[in-house]
Amino acid sequence: MYTAIITDDNIIERDALFFHLSKIKNITVIASCNNGEETAALLQVQSADIVFSDIDMPRMNGIDLLKGISKPPVFIFISSFPEYAAESYNLDAIDYIIKPASFERVKKAVDKAIEYIEIKNNTKLYSEKFDPENQISEFGSRLSTDEFFFIKENNNYSKLNIQDITYIESMGDFSKIHINGQKKSVVLVSLKNIERQLSPKIFRRIHRQYIINLLQIGSVTNTEVQLLDKTIIPISSSYRQSLIESVVEGKLLKRFGD
């Protein structure tokens, strides 16, 4: 069983989130707080696995709450303002939900948070913080091949073929590599550092939380990319423009005058 704290200055929003969480069997809400100050004080005497926090609150907002905790629980932000998302991911929040939060969206965030917690608890590898300035990552330097790379899993080195990778997802200070056939591999490398090491000719960041394999694109809309395996990945407006200009338009079938 995992414990959670809800932080929101709006009692209606708190109650709605509590209702959603009450339907998830492995989550117990231990407290519901009005603002960040109240939550910060509570965390000094009471531990929690996950904090669900609004951002725009009086006295102490959600961003300052997370910044002020030296060893914070897993944070999931729930906000009406999408413009705060980038900063929250820079602070390694595990997810960012736009209000109104549906049960399905809350459940997805909870599953991701629990997966993160279990990996950190059960795998010794992830107890060591990756420092790109002082350590060599599992990937090494920028890859010179467009065919494969190796990752370190416990004491083994596993080869991943580029063509088999569908997308890579941020999990805070490590990342999850999704592979054809529903397989997944987790590496202790942040998405930012993965982006620096993989070839931009094949892998492209389209969201603060996602890098996709360009070979796996099925279609692109204003808000999402559908991969060949039907997986839907959200695309941010800033990344979409770059993707369209540098990738899609170069391969666009065009009409020329006779």
UniProtKB/TrEMBL annotation:
Residue ranges occupied by any Response regulatory domain in the UniProt entry: 3-114
Pfam families: LytTR (PF04397), Response_reg (PF00072)
Gene3D superfamilies: 3.40.50.2300, LytTr DNA-binding domain
Tree of life domain: Bacteria
Assigned keywords, A-Z: Phosphoprotein
InterPro entries assigned to the protein according to its UniProt record, in alphabetical order: CheY-like_superfamily (IPR011006), LytR-like (IPR046947), LytTR_DNA-bd_dom (IPR007492), Sig_transdc_resp-reg_receiver (IPR001789)
In-chain residues carrying the UniProt-annotated modification 4-aspartylphosphate: D54
GO MF terms, alphabetically ordered: DNA binding; phosphorelay response regulator activity
Name the record gives this protein: LytTR family two component transcriptional regulator
Organism (species): Sediminibacterium goheungense
